[in-house]
Amino acid sequence: MHAVLASWFRLKYPHIALGALASSAPILYFDGVKPGGEASESCYKTIRKSWVEIERVASKRNGLSILSKKFKTCSRLRRTFDLKDYLDSLYSEAAQYDEPPDYPVGIVCSAIDGAPNDDVLGQIFAGVVAYMGDSSCYDVASDSAPPAPSASAWSWQMCSELVFPIGHDGGDDTMFPPAPFDLKSFTKICRSRFGIVPQPHWVTTFYGGHVCKSINIYTSNIITQ
User: What are the recorded Gene Ontology BP terms (predicted)?
Assistant: First the structure.
């Protein structure tokens, strides 16, 4: 986030800031992104199939208990959302920090591809173990622990200033289940938690959006449209 703010500061105050170094600043990273699957096509397909399989198993008698045992959750699952959200976050984090020396995307996909392919959820769990390490249980429940202060600060900043429309619509170009960004729901959460109404166009209005006439913004590892 500091890289994004550095870029915007340079755009807003070119008479104060002589330049900005922005490493990994996804300022325009919203749409038009190249479909994934480069690490492993089979891994991509397995993850894509797993969401339906999770719901299929959950629909069985004692299905949530079966999933809890399968993924060695520290507490019994009460809903499939917690498991799917945990996996979604795990994959997203692995991709965001896919850097040397570990390259976590490769670690996750190698484990998924290396597990017996007649058990989709077994393959997915193998990826969890490879990424998280072998543990007696995995803390999957999203409400099992209070958020860290830094997470609360970030949530406040997203509600008050930086509205990032993060989500995925499903379809053929993603391995994730449909979870589009819903501004109404986001606004409701912000009002309930902080008493703040988000301003989704504030950044564009304040910093200038795509109107860029300044120079000396050096970017690295940046994806733009």
Answer: proteolysis
